[in-house]
Design a protein that fits this description.
With 437 residues, the protein is of the alpha+beta class. It has 12 helices and 21 strands. Strands 2-1-13-12-11-8 form a 6-stranded antiparallel beta sheet, with helices on both faces. A 4-stranded antiparallel beta sheet has the order 14-15-16-19, with no helix packed on it. A 4-stranded antiparallel beta sheet has the order 18-17-20-21, with no helix packed on it. Strand 6 and strand 7 (240-241) form a beta hairpin. Helix 2 (45-54) packs antiparallel against helix 12 and helix 3 (88-102) runs parallel beside helix 8.
């Protein structure tokens, strides 16, 4: 099933018809606009804040046309508090790579070894030479993410799994080494590069700090919102150009590989027909966040660090805080849960997607509805008498099963994407389905 979203064109063609406010580079002044002025449903805001507080949020902001509409801090956290971006910082790094490319410091199709030197992996020189900068940007390096420590950037931890470009895997180590690529190409450290090209122009605060093998960006929530505004305006801060390479910007914010269609250059993309998640090689049907606008792109970090840019609504949203529950590498489901309430506040109705039965490839069997809320049904040809069904989570855990059935209760399952296995007459077939609330 394919989606065709004209909304996405707004992101790459023009948003000039909607005026964007940019706060001063210095000081704390930032214009606001009341939700009621925008005809938002103010009666739903308390429910939103209650949900955020109950899921360990420290800061939450919503900008409309650049102006602050919602800004809420919880506990002792304040406007001036700093917090880690975690993997949301990957998207910031992708932006910096684009600047280095436009300055002629690097090429996306250069071998990574050009900047890191040979022997940065445990691969043969021929294998290593095939890994290019673009593979680091798109998570397609071919290095094995199944090593004991996928954050480890030592050569002993970087081993061969597949040819570059043939496999998508959310692997932190090759990404982290982009910092070294950047520093080698630009001839200066990452923080100085960021300071001169971005922070001085936008008023962003923050710094990359080493943490184990990682470089983690820390800043205030408003600083993250400033970066969101920069992205909303396609790489320009007001009238000042920062990332002017429009080809790179378009590629960065659109599908970058044929394997995970919901991944750009270290940015997560909504509105695509399928997606993949960390620690899994399953391709799941549907959008990352069905409750959110299709044009949304997201910088997502561990334990619920979220930056959303929504061109069709001229919105930027920020969420910082601790894990909403158990630790999560990429908070796609949590982001979707926030949007379930936020869309009520802003009175937004997502474009409906026709829910058609998902047909498996086994003897014409049909599984429906998909997505499903409480129950899934199975329609089988007359020649199929018995069907056994098994449902697995993305982590490979069996969470439900049924023997010789035509329907299965799934109301106890958490919202998400699941693998469904059917077994009949000694043969097995697999498909996927989405469980909603």
């Amino acid at each position: 099933m394919k989606y065709c979203f004209s909304f996405l064109l707004l992101f790459f063609v023009t948003i000039s018809s909607q005026s964007i406010y940019f706060p001063p580079v210095t000081g704390s002044q930032w214009e606001t606009v009341s939700p009621s002025t925008l005809n938002w449903d103010t009666t739903k805001i308390d429910s939103l804040y209650s949900f955020l507080q109950g899921t360990n949020t420290k800061a939450f902001l919503v900008l409309k046309d650049g102006k602050i509409v919602l800004e809420k801090y919880f506990g002792s956290f304040t406007r001036d508090s700093n917090w880690y971006w975690a993997s949301a910082g990957k998207s910031l790094t992708a932006f910096l790579v684009g600047i280095a490319k436009q300055e002629g410091s690097l090429s996306l199709y250069d071998s990574t070894s050009k900047y890191l030197g040979t022997g940065w992996t445990s691969l043969t020189p021929e294998q290593e030479g095939k890994i290019k900068v673009i593979n680091q940007l798109t998570m397609t390096s071919g290095l094995d993410d199944g090593v004991p420590d996928p954050y480890c950037t030592l050569p002993s931890c970087l081993v061969y799994k597949s040819e570059p470009g043939n496999r998508w895997a959310y692997h932190n180590a090759p990404y982290t080494l982009l910092d070294g690529v950047m520093e080698s190409a630009a001839g200066q450290n990452l923080n100085l590069f960021m300071q001169q090209r971005v922070k001085l122009v936008t008023g962003m605060s923050g710094v990359f700090l080493p943490s184990g093998y990682n470089n983690v960006y820390y800043s205030t929530p408003r600083s993250m919102a400033r970066f969101g505004l920069l992205m909303l305006n396609r790489g320009r801060w007001d009238a000042t150009p920062i990332l002017t390479d429009t080809t790179y910007f378009r590629e960065m914010t659109n599908t970058s590989n044929t394997i995970n269609k919901s991944y750009g250059y270290l940015w997560w993309l909504n509105g695509k027909e399928s997606f993949m998640l960390p620690q899994s090689q399953i391709v799941f049907p549907g959008m990352l966040s069905p409750e959110a606008p299709h044009s949304m792109i997201s910088a997502l970090g561990k334990n619920g660090q979220i930056l959303n840019i929504v061109p069709e609504l001229n919105l930027v949203t920020v969420r910082m805080g601790d894990a909403p529950g158990s630790a999560i590498e990429v908070p796609t489901l949590y982001n979707n849960d926030i949007w379930k309430i936020l869309k009520q506040v802003i009175r937004y109705t997502p474009t409906s997607v026709k829910e058609e039965p998902f047909k498996t490839q086994f003897n014409g069997m049909v599984v429906y509805p998909n997505p499903a809320t409480d129950r899934i049904n199975f329609s089988t040809p007359a020649t199929v008498l018995e069907v056994d069904v098994y449902i697995y989570s993305v982590l490979g855990e069996k969470v439900a099963e049924g023997k010789n059935i035509t329907s299965l209760d799934i109301s106890h399952l958490s919202p998400g994407v699941y693998q469904l296995i059917t077994k009949t007459q000694g043969e097995m077939s697999a498909t996927k389905f989405v469980k909603t609330r």
